[in-house]
Sequence to fold (83 residues):
Amino acid sequence: MAARLGVCRRTVEKLLAEGRLPPPARFGRARRWGEGQIETVIQAEIERAEAGGRAQRARRGREQPRNESLSMLTAQPETSSWP
Fold:
């Protein structure tokens, strides 16, 4: 599963603990998932990532710049009275 998802084994353990992976079939110490289960997980993670990206983009559009240096870039230049 780790190789198919492109993650390390510890990440697979974490996803199992979070309930984001279906329980595997156990054969001794080995765990196995069906190909359909793997595809379902991959599709769910893609949709989850896309939804998160849309939420971040929406938040970014409403937020003010967090760094003052960024706000300086958008501010109008000050006029100086010095010749």
Summary: Helices lie at 2-5, 9-18, 35-62, 68-74. The beta strands are 25-27, 30-32. Residues 69-74 have pLDDT under 50 and may be disordered.
